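ok so for the tutorial part 2 we go from a plain amino acid sequence to predicted structure tokens. step 1 is just haveing the sequence, like this:
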Amino acid sequence: MYIVHIASECTPVAKVGGLGDVVYGLAGELARRGHTVEIILPRYDCMRHDRIANFHVAYQDLWVPWNGGAIRCTVWYGDVDGRQCFFIDPHSDEHFFDRGSYYGYWDDPMRMAFFSKAALEFLVKTGKRPEVLHCHDWQTALVPVLLYELYQEALPHQRACLTIHNFKHQGTTDIHLLHAAGLGRPEYFLRADKLRDDHSHHAINLMKGGIVYANFVTTVSPHHAWEARHTEMGFGMGHALYVQQDKFKGILNGLDYDYWNPRTDSHIPHHYDRDSLKTKDKNRKALRQRLWLREAKKPIVAYVGRLDSQKGVHLIRHGLFYALANEAQFVLLGSSPEMGINDYFWHLKQELNDNPDCHLEIGFDEDLAHLIYAGADIAIVPSNFEPCGLTQLISLRYGTVPVVRAVGGLQDTVFDRDHSPKEVEKRNGFVFEHSDHAGLESALSRALRLWHGDPAAFRELQLQGMAWDYSWNRPTEEYLQIYAFIRHQ
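step 2 — the prediction. this is what the tokens look like for a chain of 489 residues:
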């Protein structure tokens, strides 16, 4: 099968969040199975050009109709860890992708709409005819709309799959985008069954357009698919998803098991697997030495990730102090896009600077992240909402017992040791329901008691977590089934 991903991110060349990891991981697994896979991305000035091999011009003069005229683009080709990538480079006064960062501009919807149209023009002009166009989030949700409203004659057999990674950001904008993209007819598109935003009837919503027009829509875990339809975590998309429920499904994201592999990880000093889990203790010692923690008969509790309201900052802070008060050490690696939260944790770092059982690293350090996963005993993931989550998947892979809140993908991947209906030998962590101090304590206290009171049982729980397969193997199979289904529509 011939599949083209059209996306605004792909790890490691352009990454803001999990979207880039999914495009990278899924494309890689599809290619390994013998499918022809290409990825179309914007050429940002800030992307990691050093991670692209054989970078060269693939198409010199791609003229993209836009806003009553046309914009000339150069299309570049490059190899990203074996993945075939094309980069759209527009030459215009708007400087769509020459701004020093990926997102955060008032005209983001216009920038991404142009990219979506340029990607389709590139396919048409080069004679590329993939069977499936796989689009991602609001940034490329206009692709299915354009495909069926403007490009049906040129691309009559192509089908579109849209994956929504985050319902919070939807690409809401005004009708000027319709004119710029050549769609026009605002009276047609500003209908409830088209692109009209369900809460602002004079605005168009790109994500909703993608949901309406795509042949199939997925999100990144089964439980989050339910949340998006039935709770506020759909951020207003519940009705659109209800109308389109027959083509909507949650597919759990995978984890890159080549990169996240404690047996071969170049970022950690001591390699191990299920048969040599005892070696993990050496990484705990190395983590203590690196972060100046004292040697003590205590478990290390860790948090790795963003510090924002989605991730449950109030519970991260409470988990820190609860661990220190209950014979445990605590390490944190993360930063916040919100200045107030970042400042608060910097203050907390100063306050706890002399505590030999605690270390806060404000920022991001790839080597340290791997060492924390390898050296910690327990990882907390107390998110307010979590469409899929990678932290718990990495933790399980590295034999670090996750303590998570029962939301989104966390509920789909972590099964409580004491209360899960799963078979006892398949349970792999501790889970709590409510986003409050008592909720977190109900799970973290059980994890700490097990570590102190029954080390053999704790080690067995680690091994059970490592036995789970959360690689891209199963989700890729599910996507291939969807591709096969929509090809015959």
